[in-house]
Amino acid sequence: MQSFLQNSFPGASFESEKGTTPLSTLKKRDAALSGALGLTTCLKPEAALMLELYEAGKEGRAVTVSVLGLTGGIAPTTTLRYLEALQKKGAVRRIAHKTDHRMTYVELTESAQAAMDAAFGG
After folding, report:
1. CA 72 to CA 30: how far, in whole Å?
2. Which parts pass through the membrane (predicted)?
3. What is the model's pLDDT at position 93?
4. Which of 20, 48, 70, 102 is most exposed, with minimal Cβ within 10 Å?
């Protein structure tokens, strides 16, 4: 697969760097492949949203529903559709802003966080 990618997309880097985390390696590879194909991301929307929420949680950032999709280049309607599906599966939860009821935050549930930690060694 590595040689196919390098032959198909000359100049794009698909190599892992020493000392990088699995999450950063995944994001770099997605960026390289997406860039080579002229796309925003090659990840499925639900995976892109979960990765963004995972990273935000690790950094202690609160993420609003409206900003979440924009960060990953995902259309707002697509973001809402996949957030609804992820919420039904118990992977994310929405939290209303304490004073501004127009804003809603979204975060991973404890079980989703644990699964992501297991997958990415976090």
Report:
1. 11
2. none
3. 97
4. 102
Cα separation of 79 and 5, whole Å? 29
Residues near 50 by Cβ (< 8 Å), separated by ≥ 6? 86, 91, 92, 108, 112, 116
The CATH number covering residue 91 comes to 1.10.10.10
pLDDT digits (tens, 9 = 90+) for 28-45: 887 788 788 787 777 788
Angle at 50 between CA 61 and CA 33, to 5 degrees: 110
83 pLDDT higher than 80: yes
Q: Are residues 79 and 99 in the same domain?
A: yes
Q: Please give the structure tokens belonging to residue 37.
A: 């194909």
- Coil, strand or helix: which one is 64? strand
Helix then strand then coil, % of the chain, to nearest 5:
55, 10, 35
CA atoms lying within 13 Å on the CB side of residue 50: 27
